[in-house]
Specification:
Length: 194
């Protein structure tokens, strides 16, 4: 998830600034809703985990991480629209995908036995750092091999990078489906640290 989501933010920023010719300030202003929607989703997730199985919520979040990137994968002309391609990725990706998945990940960490919680929290944070870097390196290498060396223009290169983000999120979905233990809704003291 981290490799796909953080790399997606890198590519949508490049599309906004290099293709849409927005300044860094104009890009930041247009991405403010990303933070607002993300904050709102963080609040909504509290009641959601008390009603639904957190593994299923995690899988929904992982699927949304992959789906959110798709508007940027279908930019057929040289002029990508910020509002049609970049904006949906930013809002859906950060709110439904990243916030959704992170919330569930940390709840699974808190459900570990007390003596393992610190270790597992450290592993999740390490995965964030490594996943972000590895995701960017992998997508850049694929974009270089597939788009740059074949003489494609910048937009095609960014599309290729975004397809890599879809793939990384898909791998995260499969790993989560197979490797995460099913955990029912969390009630009251179930959310407290053991």
């Amino acid at each position: 998830m981290y490799g796909g989501s953080q790399t997606t933010i890198y590519y949508i920023t490049l599309i906004a600034q290099e293709i849409n010719k927005l300044s860094p300030t104009a890009t930041a202003i247009r991405l403010i809703p990303m933070g607002l929607v993300g904050g709102t989703f963080s609040v909504v997730m509290g009641p959601a985990v008390s009603r639904f199985n957190t593994k299923y919520l995690l899988l929904v979040g992982m699927a949304l991480c992959a789906i959110a990137t798709l508007p940027g994968c279908f930019m057929f002309d040289r002029e990508a629209s910020f509002w049609k391609h970049v904006f949906p990725i930013s809002v859906i990706g950060v709110a439904s995908g990243i916030d959704h998945s992170l919330y569930c990940e940390y709840l699974h960490v808190l459900s570990c036995a007390g003596e393992y919680q610190e270790f597992v929290c450290g592993m999740v944070n390490t995965a964030f750092q490594i996943g972000s870097g590895v995701g960017l390196v992998l997508s850049s290498a694929v974009a270089e091999a597939v788009a740059v060396k074949k003489g494609h223009w910048e937009l095609k290169q960014y599309e290729t990078g975004l397809w890599c983000c879809v793939g990384l999120a898909g791998v995260g979905f499969v790993v989560s489906a197979v490797g995460v233990k099913s955990q029912g809704p969390l009630k009251g003291e179930g959310m407290a640290i053991h």
